[in-house]
C-alpha cells in the first residue's frame, strides 16, 4: 500500500449545517476508501478523524453507522454498516457537493487546508 496524502478542510459548522457538512462527511468516507462507490471496505480511523473530526467519528460509531472491524498495530480500522451506507445513499456514486469536498480532501490543486501524509499500515 502506498503512502496516502490528504488535505484538511477545517472544522464543521456550528451548528452542524446538513446541506454543507453532510456531503463533507460522505466525502471523507470516499477519500478514506479510495473508491468510486462506497462499500464496507475498512477505513483508517486516523484518516477519518483528520478529514472529519474526532467527535464526528465517535458520533457515527455511537449511532451504529460505523463499526470497529480490526486493529493493525496502533491503527484502528472502521467500516460503514448497512445503515451507514444507506444514510450516505451511495448507490450511484458521489453527488456534486460530495465530489467538491472530495477534491478538497484529495487533490493538491483544490486543497484548502494543510497536507498530511499517512504512512501505509501492514496487513496481518
Short description:
This protein is an alpha+beta fold and 124 residues long. The protein is built from 5 helices and 5 strands. It has a single domain, classed as Arc Repressor Mutant, subunit A.
Break the fold down into its secondary structure elements and pairings.
Blueprint: E1 4-7, H1 18-33, E2 43-44, H2 45-51, H3 54-63, E3 66-72, E4 75-80, H4 82-88, H5 96-106, E5 115-118
Antiparallel strand pairs: 1-5, 2-4, 3-4
Helix pairs in contact: 1-5, 2-3
Notes on the protein architecture:
The chain has five helices and five strands. It is an alpha+beta fold. It has a single domain, classed as Arc Repressor Mutant, subunit A. The strands form two sheets. Strands 2-4-3 form a three-stranded antiparallel sheet. Strands 1-5 form a two-stranded antiparallel sheet.
Overall form: globular
- CATH first level: which class? Mainly Alpha
Query: Based on the structure given, which CATH architecture is correct?
Result: Orthogonal Bundle
Spell out the helices and strands N to C.
Answer: EHEHHEEHHE
Share in β-strands: 15-25%
Oligomer: single chain
Total strands = 5
Could you tell me how far the N terminus lies from the C terminus, measured between alpha carbons in angstroms?
13 Å
Strand numbers in spatial order across the main sheet: 2-4-3
Average pLDDT reading: 87
CATH fold node name: Arc Repressor Mutant, subunit A
Measured as a percent range, the helix fraction is: 40-55%
SS summary, helix count? 5
Query: How large, in whole angstroms, is the Cα Rg?
Result: 14 Å
Question: What characterizes the major β-sheet?
Answer: 3 strands, antiparallel
Total domain modules? 1
- Enumerate the spans where pLDDT stays under 50 for 5 or more consecutive residues: none
Specify the structural class.
alpha+beta
Amino acid at each position: 500500500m502506498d503512502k496516502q496524502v490528504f488535505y484538511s478542510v477545517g472544522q464543521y459548522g456550528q451548528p452542524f449545517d446538513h446541506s454543507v457538512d453532510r456531503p463533507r462527511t460522505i466525502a471523507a468516507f470516499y477519500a478514506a476508501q479510495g473508491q468510486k462507490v462506497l462499500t464496507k471496505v475498512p477505513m483508517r480511523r486516523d484518516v477519518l478523524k483528520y478529514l472529519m473530526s474526532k467527535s464526528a467519528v465517535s458520533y457515527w460509531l455511537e449511532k451504529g453507522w460505523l463499526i470497529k472491524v480490526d486493529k493493525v498495530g496502533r491503527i484502528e480500522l472502521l467500516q460503514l454498516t448497512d445503515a451507514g451506507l444507506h444514510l450516505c445513499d451511495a448507490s450511484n456514486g458521489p453527488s456534486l457537493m460530495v465530489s467538491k469536498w472530495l477534491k478538497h480532501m484529495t487533490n493538491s490543486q483544490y486543497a484548502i487546508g494543510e497536507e498530511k501524509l499517512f504512512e501505509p499500515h501492514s496487513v496481518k
